[in-house]
Amino acid sequence: MTAAARAAELRKVIDHHNFKYYVEATPEISDREFDRLLEELQRIEKAHPELVTPDSPTQRVGGAPIEGFVQVAHRVPMLSIDNSYNPDDLRKFDADVRKALSPGARVSYTVELKIDGVSMSMVYEDGVLTAGVTRGRGDVGDDVTHNLRTIGSVPLRLNTATPPKLFEVRGEVFMTRAELVRINRRRVEEGEKPYENTRNLTAGTLKQLDPKECAKRKLSLFAYGIGAFEGIDLKSQTQLFDTLKAFGFPVNPHEKHFHTIDEVIAYCLEWDEKRHDLPYDTDGMVIKVNDFAQRQRLGATAKVPRWVKAYKFEAEQGITRVGGVEFSIGKFGELTPVALLDPPVRLSGTTVSRASMHNASWVEERDVRLGDTVAVEKKGEIIPQVVSVVTDARTGVEKKVVWPATCPACGGPVEKQESATSYGYYCMNTGVCPAQVAKRLIGFARRERMDIEGLGEEVGKQLVDSGLVKSVTDLYRLTKNQLLALEGFADLKAQNLLDGIAASKDRGLARLIAALSIYMVGGGMADALADAFPSLDEVLAAGEEDLSKVKGFGPKRAKFVYDFFHSPAGEKLVTEFRELGLKLTQDRKAAPAGGLPLAGKTLVVTGTLARYDRPGIEALIKEIGGKVAGSVSKKTDFLVAGEKAGSKLDKAKELGVRVLTEDEFDDLIGK
User: Fold this and answer.
1) What is the 8-class DSSP label of residue 117?
2) Which residues are designated catalytic?
3) 217 and 257, same structural domain?
4) Which pLDDT tens digit goes with each residue over 546-583?
5) Which of 198, 222, 387, 647 lies 20 to 30 Å from 19, alpha-carbon distance?
């Protein structure tokens, strides 16, 4: 047998045993026998480098380290999932689904465990893995292909003789609790601090630049969804699961298909009790409309699909005592009381020693006192919070919480401020309080804002505490020598941070405004403001009345924006941004000759389209001047109708609205 033939045979045999081990959990040979097969293939490929293929099992061990992460746009956005917390929420979801579909539509749901890991997009072209990209912002993620290849349960080639041209699989990369224990046992032996939980360690492992480091930790995968695809016909989630298994992907064995919402609810409640027996962490269930055509008709909002809902398990609670209170300072100067728990409690796999108590009105309404016995839980299993007081446990020695007269971080004056529904205490030293500056700096650098790689909470606090950064503009004046003088900074870390800061200069006006911590102005409002005034000069020239006319603004939000930019601090900030070379304009897509083809037109989309998914065509309509509506009315100009168009098509015909096929839509927009 030739070397090429033996290598091909070994690859086939090794892939078979990988499938039996990772997907079917029925290994046919011992680990040592498997290692011998892999070692033989490695020897052949070493002697004949021309025989190495991208999908060879030997490529899992990891190649050379990469220099940094490249961001990749998702072909189909990885949207968030809307949460529910009780059976009534699920019944409302079911009612909304049935209302949106045609009367009498038969709806069924698939239900699967919500694995607590890192969401991943895996792209296969002609059957071969070509890219692994994290969810990231939803539209853009990090290319971690070099690390994804090291995960044994990820197929490097689809297990089919006739692969589709394009097949983008969505899945969750996770770590078992046993693997976390193994890693932590080694770290403790070496005098290192143990990791807290599997989710954070999974995310950190996937962000390793050296794939050999990732290969040392045993990550796993469950595939659950589909992104972009060509050359394959998929009609339902149940069919997709069968296809995924046939192609060699591990899917969670506890996925089930139900025809009533009561069955769905019963299954969710069942797993709320059983989840602790699993070898991996979960934080809920995912309920999906099974039929893909119905999903197309249901569509999505700007953030979440309407055909899927997450059922979040009730947060774990711990009972402990308030041993003391500290005050955390927010980016707007608000003092958040933080309970120091004595003793700490274990919640969702982590030791919790501190828990938020919201604000002054919350503490005083519930009469929380030092020494009280309290119930603590993690909101969304992430943020620890005090949720109630066990007043029956009081002994009479408990003491009222006393609010500081001066800021614990800067010594500046603290004042009580009231709103219509609550009140709180605020540090009035807004411009120079280091705690506020650090919070604003960390918010400025967030991925969905200025996206500064390497500037997280720890580094942000370090930069402020060192005195190097007193304002966000100081970031752009940092030098490598200054960073190298800080603890934990070596040459590569310093250079990566400087590169991330330099790259952020070109993010554009909308993201810059969102990053500035202007009260009541987040990402959506910043987008609207930049759409209305696509340069900072135009924003500065606008009066409060002009700003109030921006979609979603009104007088109150307009005043916050106007006051921010026309204050001495705001004017100084703008001057420095100009000097430092930040991009202060918002790009607009060039309009085709003759103007935007759908300017002023309202369109509704219904049915299953061949060349567009629902988010894609709706985004295109908006880009070229149109407005997308969810229902047909007399104000609708066009209905774009695909296959299995239902009641919306009937309504359009009744009202005389012009109906377009997909081809006619393309002709209309000149595509």
Assistant:
1) S
2) 114
3) yes
4) 999 887 788 999 999 999 999 998 999 999 999 999 99
5) 198
pLDDT per residue as tens digits for the range 607-643:
877 667 676 688 778 777 788 887 888 889 999 988 7
As a whole number of Å, the CA-based R_g of the chain is: 28
In a domain, 619, yes or no: yes
Would you place residue 66 in the very low, low, confident or very high pLDDT band (cuts 50, 70, 90)?
low
Contacts of 378 (CB under 8 A, 6+ apart): 315, 316, 347, 348, 352, 384, 385
Name which residue leads in pLDDT, 418 or 405. 405
pLDDT reported for residue 615: 66
Q: How far is CA 509 from CA 149, 525, 539, in A?
A: 38, 12, 10
> What DSSP assignment string belongs to 554-589?
HHHHHHHHHHHHHSHHHHHHHHHHHHHT---B---P
Q: Are 334 and 367 part of one and the same domain? A: yes
Give the contacts of 584 (CB within 8 A, at least 6 positions apart).
Answer: 509, 512, 535, 536, 537, 577, 578
CA-based nearest residue to 330, from 400, 453, 229, 414: 414
Question: pTM higher than 0.85, yes or no?
Answer: no
Residue 256 shares a structural domain with residue 166? yes
Helix (H) or strand (E) holding 396: none
Could you tell me the pLDDT band of residue 289, with boundaries at 50, 70 and 90? very high
